[in-house]
Amino acid sequence: MKIATRNQRGERWLAALPVYNEVGYVDGVLDEVAQYADHVLCVDDGSNDGTSEVLARRSDVDVVTHETNQGYGAALRSIFHYTIEHGFDGVVTLDCDGQHQPKRIPRFVEAAAAADIVSGSRYLKQYEGDDAPPPERMFINRRITSELNRRLGFDLTDAFCGFKAYRAEALQQMDITDNGYAMPLQLWVEAAAADLRVVEVPVPLIYLDLSRSFGGSLDHAETRLNYYNDVLNQAIDKVCREGKPLNERKRLCNQSIG
Q1: Domain Glycosyltransferase 2-like, which positions (predicted)?
Q2: Domain 3-254: top CATH class
Q3: Which one of 111, 172, 181, 230 is separated from 5 by 20 to 30 angstroms, measured CA to CA?
Q4: Of residues 9 and 232, more confidently modeled
Q5: Model confidence pLDDT, tens digit, residues 211-249
Q6: CB 239 within 8 Å of CB 190
C-alpha cells in the first residue's frame, strides 16, 4: 500500500534518496520504494559508475542531478528544496545502499502525524538478524548522540540514521548549509533552536558493505570525531549569534566540546 493511501489527512508525501555510485543497488531499492511511495525522487550526486544511466532508464522516478559530487549534506539539501518547491507536505529520506527497508516508509509517515521530524533508530529495538555495527562507528555514534542530548535537550538514541521523515513546515524553519556527512549535527541544532517535535522509530541494523568510505581523512575515526565536534560547535555558535530562541536550551551558547 502506497504512502498516499495510508495518509488519512490528504497530505502529499515524497520519498527521496541521495545517490552516489550505487549501480549495484539502485534498481532493486527503487523497485521496492515504488511499492510504498507515489512520488519518488533521487538526487544523483555526481555518480560516475553507471548509476546515472540506470536512473535515466526509469520513468517512475524524478531525478535531480549534481554534475559533480558535492556531498551527502548537499544531496539532502537538494531533497529539502525539492520538497518545498513542489508543494509536498513532507518527505521520507532513505539511503540507496540497501541499509533501509522501504516497507517501513508508511510507518514514518504515520509517525509524522505527531512530529516535525521522525528519525529512525537502529538502537531502540533489536531485530532478529541485526548486523553488528563496526565498533568505531558505534563508538562515534554513541559519543555524538550523548553530546547532542546533553547540549540540546533531546533524548536521541541514534544521531546519524538517514532514514527520516520531515514535515515541510519543519524544513522551512531550519537553515541547513553543511554539504558533508556532518550535516545531521547541524540539522539537530537547527531543530532544537526551532523547538521542533522529534520522535524516533526503530529500524533494523543493516550493514551490507563495511568497506564504504567517508572520504579521505574522514576514514580515520579520530579525525572524523574531531570533525563532527567542530561542526557541532560551529552550528551552536551560529544559532546563538543569530539570536534564535533556544528556550531552556540557552545554556548551549556557553558550552563547547573539547
Answers
A1: 17-173
A2: alpha beta
A3: 172
A4: 232
A5: 554 455 555 567 888 889 999 999 999 998 888 765 545
A6: yes
32: number of CA atoms within 13 Å, CB side?
Answer: 18
Average pLDDT over residues 136-140: 83
Separation in Å, CA 220 to CA 106, 130, 177, 225, 226:
36, 25, 24, 9, 10
DSSP the chain: --HHHH-TT---EEEEEEESS-TTTHHHHHHHHTTT-SSEEEEEES--SSHHHHHHT-SS-EEEEESS---HHHHHHHHHHHHHHTT-SEEEE--SSS-S-GGGHHHHHHHGGG-SEEEEESSSS--TTPPPPPHHHHHHHHHHHHHHHHHH----S-S----EEEEHHHHHT------STTHHHHHHHHHHHTT--EEEEE-----S-TT----GGGGSHHHHHHHHHHHHHHHHHHHHHTT---GGGGGGGG----
Residue spans per domain, the chain: 3-254
Instruction: Identify which of 164, 31, 13 has the alpha carbon closest to the alpha carbon of residue 100.
Output: 164
Hey, CA dihedral for 252, 166, 107, 113, is it positive or negative? positive
Residue whose cell numbers read 567542530? 230
Q: Name the pTM for this structure.
A: 0.88
For the stretch 93-106, pLDDT in tens is 999 988 899 999 99
pLDDT tens by residue, 12-60: 999 999 999 999 999 999 999 999 999 999 999 999 999 999 999 999 9
The grid coordinates of residue 88 equal 509536498
